Amino acid sequence: MNANKLTLRIMLGMILGIVAGYAVNSMAPSPDAAKEIAGYFSLVSDIFLRLIKMIIAPLVFSTVVSGIANMGDSKAVGRVGGKAILWFVTAAIISLLLGCLFANVLQPGAALNMPLPPADASTNLATKSLTFTNFLLNVFPKSVFDSFASNQILQILVFSIFFGLAIAALGKKVETITKFTDDVVHVMIKVTDYVMQFAPIGVFAAMGAAISTQGLGVLLTYGKLIASFYSGLIVLWALLIAAGWIVLRERVFKLMSLMRSVMLLAFSTASSEAAYPKTMEQLEKFGASKRITSFILPLGYSFNLDGSMMYQAFAIIFIAQAYGIHMSIATQLTMLAVLMLTSKGMAGVARASLVVVAATLPMFHLPESGLLLIMAIDQFLDMGRTATNVIGNSIATAVVAKWEGELSATVEDDETVPEQAPALAHESA
Asked: Is the pTM of this model over 0.85?
């Protein structure tokens, strides 16, 4: 499907979803009735998200294995991974500092005129398991079948790396498996195209469900918080694009043009998984080799969540302001260091950013119940941070491809299939 047509269809679906949700919210005889109707919207959006989740594990596995098998050696994998991690860490630091800066300058929680939740209120978020020790343990799968069944991207990535390196080491002895994996990639991309045809319907239902239960009024009630957060996101987008321009020059704007439909999909569904397959497809059209894209993108989904990182710093300071609790600069810097570690456990955790915030609040003597203040509008904040994650990961992948000489000089048309990029050059021993 042409990317421009998909963008228009998704945008239309989002607008119609808002209209339908507003109609339900304003015309329903009671909040319970609106909630019941919203449940039917949610059913449709959940079906679409299940279709997306259905293809994530085989798509990640096949593309990573195919990419590494064609790299040829472990040195290339280590070199590419090292460059990616360097970019990820730098982007994370900038995102955290920006969230901290905007919360301090705009003070969205300083004049909060609403009753605060009781100190013993519960958010019902599972935070006890979110520790750096548990994160390290959870990186390595105890059963590859369990990892595939639960879409644990980081665990699938680890297994895929080992599997791909084994294929590369055995070479011609397993060329049948190599060819089979390459063929699976093509099949999964075609399956992705089929699933993406339902994206506008999924977007319509997701927006309808959110507005049906909360109405447009919630956007006005939390107007300053939402405006402050999105102002910070816009600046973060500008910084990420500027960083991409340093490496990619004017081609970064073509990349953003290709990613429009993906960002809109991520924004409207608030789901990184929904955006993953299309992100990979658009990056290949941009000219990034399949080997780089298939390796860096899954890695980025675990380590390069720029929008989520900014949100966590922003949300914690907002809660402190809402309670009138002063956080010194030293305390805030310590908080950022903690978030750099705890946020790496986000992959596979339900309502991940909220869980990270809830786990971090007690460390700085802030009431966890303060998170209830923003849970009502988290869907709208999540939309922005998810779209930002897509921007960050697409630029990171393109930059690493450029550094590795794996970015073709031309951009493929939306109606054509990208040509195979040349294999990664092996480093001399």
From this structure: no
